[in-house]
Every structure is written in structure tokens, then in C-alpha cells.
């Protein structure tokens, strides 16, 4: 059921690890990076809640409820990934990123709802941490692919200045995206909606405003747990977006003592950064199931809080690292936190929402993720210039500080005790 997450997250992994280098090879300035990455938060903000609401109101005995949406998303991703390295200008690459993110967001939201539809509550912890496992595996493969292809292909470049390893990474991503989602599509049948849900679906057919009404009503009656999680996500995802945009620049500065003006050294730094990010995703899929056990013992809230503290301290340490091998140490903390981010909050979310609204509420949760990214895209360029001395290391330190604030906010999330009981395995 979760194999398709490998392909979707391989695509996201390429965005995290290879989009900033791709932009810099096309001569983007560092302070342009936030606005050039605006596609992710904007498409997530617009597409995911609408797709979620639409999938709640969809049912076909042949095609299912969620599957048509995440298949369409995977096809779109594959096409965008295939063309991305052939970009001849900065704005062509940015435009393709909009298409890629539209596909990713079309696939992601109904996929999370699909898992929630299939599982009884007692299997939520294991189900969502299995997602986290495949997330870590997919992003790991995306992160190590530049080094693998650079080793195989060598250091050649196209006429536009894009190294050939970029082509290999994105073309493989295109293949993996569609093949893994297709596997889940054909191997996992969907559950038929209940009679009550089918009546609701029939009632809304032909009403183009019904999905927007669902989104509005769900926002108005947003569960307390989700309101409190939104504060955590404000700090958490603003920080992660900074990290993905500036980590290769920070590593280039602290370890290679260079910047993007020296393309040869920056290329080495970018590939090593991708390898280090791959390592933290190895930590992610190795630690994902251990967090399930901890969540059952000390609750999901405390697990997530501790993981955010680990990541915050790790990020604050990264700019002080001047040895490329030592860089892997703080990545352990980031990897454990990433395992939590990709699974633990969804245990709380899935236990706090009505099953008939899985789609729309998962879309709203994604809005809570992308709104901080949208704010970062519009605001961080100025913060970087005015308050952080235009220094990549300071950007990473600032991200670490925000994760510590997210940890504090996590402490105050209230989840009803009976929801944890429902999410516990039989006999616990």
C-alpha cells in the first residue's frame, strides 16, 4: 500500500537536494532562492485541500476514490522530472518546478487519505510510520543519486552549464515516480465508502461548489488538536524550507570555504551535501518503526517534541562543522526528526478527524505545512539580507532556532486520552 510513497518522496527528495544546485548552475543568486521555490507552497496551498475534498466526494467501482487523483499526480510528476534537467534558462526550470509541485501535491494528499481509509485506528501508528519509512527510503535514493551518477558519468556539463549527473538523477526519478505509484494502484484495492458516505457523494454530484463548502466548514470546525498543531507547523516548516534552500551553500562555505562563484568547488559541495542528506534519510527509515513503539509508550506529542529538539540542536551545530565527514553526525538528529515529521503528527491528526472527511482534513493539514513555506518564500530573502548578514550558516542556525520554538509549541498540543487508546494496539 505504501510503496508509491517511495516514488512520490523520490520526487520531493530531488527538490530538496537538486533544485537549489540546478538553479545555481543556471546563475541564480542566493537571495532569489526563496522566491524561486515559491511553487511548492503555492501549489500545496491551492491544490491539496481541493483535491482532498474532491476525493472525499468521488467513488467509482472501477477506479476507486483516491486512486484516480494520485495516478494523475504521478504522471504529471514523471513528465516534469523528465524535462527538468533540459532547462535552458532559470525561468524555464522555475516553471517546470510549478508543474512538478502540482503533480506532487495532487498525488500526496489523496495518498495519505487512502492509507487512513484502509486502516483501522489501532493500525494508524504502524501505517503512518510505514509511510515515514518509504519517505526516508525514497529521499535517500534521491539524495545519493547525484554522487552515483557523478561517479558513473563523470564531471561533464551541458551547454547550459548543468552537470550530466543532474540528468541521470531526474530521469531515474521520472521512472520511479510512475512505476511505484502504479504498483500501489494495482496491488491495493480501495475500501468502498459506507452507505452514509455514498449518499453524501450522490448528493454533492454536479455541485461544483461542494468541495469548497467542505473545506470552509472543516476550517470553521477545525479540531483543537489541529489548531495547536498549526502553531508547531508554522515554526517547523518555515525552518525546513530554509534548510533545504541554504544547506548546500552553508556546507560550501564552512567546509569548502567557497560560494557559488566557484562552480567547480560548489559542485563538489552540493554533491556532498546531497550525500549527507541521503544519510539523514537512511536514519529516517531506520528509526521510523522505533518511533512507533515510543509513541505508544510516551505519546506521540512527547516523541515529536524530543525529535524537534534534536533537529534544532543539530542545525545550530552544522555551520561550525569544518570537516566533511563530521557533517554526518548532526544529520543523525535531523534524520530522527524527519522520521517523526513524516509520521508522528498524522497519528494525532487521524485520531482527531471523522473518517468520512479524511481527504479534506489531510488537505487542510497540508495547508498548515505549505503556508509557512509560502511565508518563508516571501519573507526570508529580506531576513537573510537584513538580519543574517547574507550568510548561509546564519540561515541554518536560524532554522535550528525555529525548530526549538516548534518543540516548545508541541508541548502544549492537547490530544484526548481516548484517541490514544483507540490508536493503541490490541491488548495495550
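^ C-alpha cells above, recovered residues below v
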Amino acid at each position: 500500500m505504501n510503496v508509491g510513497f517511495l516514488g512520490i518522496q523520490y520526487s520531493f527528495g530531488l527538490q530538496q537536494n537538486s533544485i537549489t544546485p540546478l538553479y545555481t548552475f543556471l546563475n541564480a543568486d542566493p537571495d532569489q532562492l526563496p522566491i524561486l521555490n515559491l511553487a511548492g507552497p503555492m501549489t500545496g496551498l491551492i491544490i491539496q485541500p481541493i483535491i482532498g475534498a474532491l476525493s472525499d466526494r468521488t467513488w467509482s467501482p472501477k477506479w476507486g476514490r483516491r486512486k484516480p487523483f494520485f495516478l494523475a499526480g504521478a504522471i504529471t510528476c514523471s513528465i516534469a522530472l523528465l524535462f527538468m534537467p533540459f532547462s535552458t534558462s532559470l525561468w524555464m526550470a522555475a516553471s517546470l518546478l510549478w508543474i512538478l509541485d502540482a503533480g506532487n501535491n495532487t498525488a500526496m494528499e489523496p495518498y495519505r487519505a487512502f492509507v487512513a481509509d484502509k486502516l483501522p485506528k489501532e493500525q494508524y501508528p504502524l501505517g503512518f510510520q510505514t509511510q515515514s519509512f518509504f519517505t526516508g527510503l525514497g529521499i535517500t535514493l534521491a539524495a545519493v543519486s547525484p554522487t552515483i551518477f557523478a561517479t558513473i558519468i563523470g564531471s561533464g556539463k551541458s551547454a547550459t552549464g548543468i552537470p550530466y549527473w543532474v540528468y541521470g538523477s531526474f530521469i531515474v526519478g521520472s521512472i520511479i515516480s510512475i512505476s511505484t505509484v502504479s504498483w500501489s494502484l494495482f496491488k491495493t484495492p480501495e475500501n468502498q465508502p459506507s452507505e452514509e458516505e455514498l449518499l453524501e457523494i450522490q448528493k454533492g454530484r454536479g455541485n461544483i461548489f461542494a468541495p469548497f463548502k467542505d473545506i470552509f466548514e472543516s476550517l470553521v470546525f477545525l479540531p483543537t488538536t489541529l489548531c495547536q498543531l498549526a502553531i508547531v507547523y508554522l515554526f517547523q516548516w518555515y525552518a525546513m524550507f530554509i534548510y533545504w534552500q541554504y544547506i548546500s551553500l552553508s556546507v560550501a562555505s564552512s567546509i569548502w570555504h567557497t560560494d557559488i562563484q566557484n562552480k567547480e568547488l560548489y559542485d563538489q559541495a552540493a554533491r556532498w551535501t546531497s550525500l549527507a542528506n541521503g544519510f539523514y534519510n537512511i536514519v529516517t527509515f531506520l528509526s521510523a518503526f522505533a518511533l512507533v513503539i515510543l509513541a505508544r509508550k510516551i505519546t506521540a506529542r512527547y516523541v515529536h517534541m524530543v525529535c524537534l529538539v534534536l533537529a534544532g540542536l543539530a542545525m545550530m551545530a552544522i555551520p561550525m562543522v569544518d570537516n566533511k565527514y563530521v557533517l554526518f553526525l548532526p544529520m543523525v538528529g535531523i534524520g530522527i526528526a524527519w522520521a517523526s515529521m513524516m509520521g508522528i503528527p498524522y497519528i494525532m491528526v487521524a485520531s482527531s478527524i471523522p473518517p468520512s472527511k479524511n481527504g479534506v482534513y489531510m488537505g487542510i493539514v497540508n495547508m498548515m505545512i505549505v503556508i509557512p513555506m509560502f511565508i518563508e518564500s516571501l519573507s526570508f530573502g529580506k531576513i537573510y539580507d537584513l538580519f543574517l548578514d547574507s550568510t548561509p550558516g546564519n540561515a541554518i542556525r536560524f532554522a535550528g532556532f525555529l525548530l526549538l520554538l516548534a518543540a516548545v509549541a508541541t508541548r502544549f498540543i492537547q490530544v484526548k486520552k481516548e484517541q490514544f487508546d483507540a490508536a493503541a494496539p490490541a491488548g495495550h
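Residues 263-298 form the longest helix (36 residues).
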